[in-house]
Amino acid sequence: MSSNKHTVVIIGYGGMGKFHGQLISENEHLEVAGTFDLLEARREASTQAGFKAYKSYEEVLADPAVEVVLIATPNDVHKAIAIRALEAGKNVICEKPVAMSSAELKEMIAAADEASRVLMVHQNRRWDEDFRVIKKMYEMETIGALFQIESRVHGANGIPGDWRHVKEQGGGMLLDWGVHLLDQLLFMIDSKVTSVSSTLSYILGNEVDDGFEAVLQFENGIKAIIEVGTTNFIALPRWYVKGTEGSAVIEDWSLTGRIVTRNSESEHREPAPIRAGVGLTKTMAPPRKGSTITKALPPAAELPDRFYNNFVAVIEGTAEPIVKNAEVLRVQNLIEAIFVAAASNEVIKDFDTYGA
Length: 356
Ligand code: NAD
Description:
Elements: E1 6-11, H1 15-25, E2 30-36, H2 40-48, H3 57-62, E3 68-71, H4 78-87, E4 91-95, H5 102-115, E5 119-122, H6 129-140, E6 146-154, H7 173-188, E7 193-201, E8 211-218, E9 223-229, E10 239-243, E11 246-250, E12 257-262, E13 274-276, E14 279-281, E15 292-295, H8 307-315, H9 325-344
Parallel strand pairs: 1-2, 1-3, 3-4, 4-5, 6-9
Antiparallel strand pairs: 6-10, 7-8, 8-9, 10-11, 11-12, 12-15, 13-14
The structure holds nicotinamide-adenine-dinucleotide.
């Protein structure tokens, strides 16, 4: 990689803009040349953090020293900001969800192609360790072939902030957290989604969804349940997966979890019946002692590089993007299918761009 640092201007210096500012300051290949935010208070915060606060977006685009524009604004303005940057010859990192629709994303990709510049979406949760542990289990068949994957995030704080409540600005939880969980799933599972059904929840009375559940069926036989909730005062585990030889659970982001598999060494003996509730059951009795093995979770799957370093390698022409725009477009299509499935109460088929 080149020894000179590539200069980045962060557009939108709110929660995520500040986070990028910190992370980029720690990166050896990138540096923050400044920020631009519409709000005076955010521009002051930028100056206080030691970053130049540009006075207008035009000033950013006209500055030949700026190589990369990083977009961390609300979702409805991603497209316009990205296309202007690409047309001005800048490379672009854009926050998720990259756009409000697949049609918008196609325009952004076309602008990147036209300008021969890089557009890469910050699907950072591909690097989450809990996800990479599941990815490892999928690849190594640690609990046999996975056939059911349940991926959930449950909070009890409602929808945060301001614009996340507004439909026109791309609010709602499907676009917010849904895009992460769906991106992880499609990144991991190398198979076509053959059907999707879903429900969105509006418990809090907002015009946007405060959560959703989607059930996806893949051609290779995997069923996935994806759920986001913001009204869950008791959270279900982050991951619950079933394989042909066992089950696994990951409770949280600190990787509390375990695997329980069949003990192939032990002779199969039916469990003794137990009293359960007011009845008797053998089917639901705990397996006999020694017939299962409890193990620690495996180490996480590795990705070829970290997000920013991969971005730098891509703009220097030495690597392929780990987050590919065709994959991001596929996720955007899936989100649209989930919205349609929920609105029509129908199972949606034949929308997947897998292999296209
Ligand atoms: P935020 O409201 O905290 O910050 C957004 C900032 O953008 C505000 O300061 C606002 O004044 C500014 N802004 C709005 N329109 C602008 C414009 N046209 N030009 C310049 N500035 C403008 O929002 P946030 O939580 O930081 O989210 C920003 C983006 O980051 C969203 O797309 C969100 O989905 C994404 N995000 C990603 C992650 C992740 O882990 N990848 C986490 C949080 C947020």
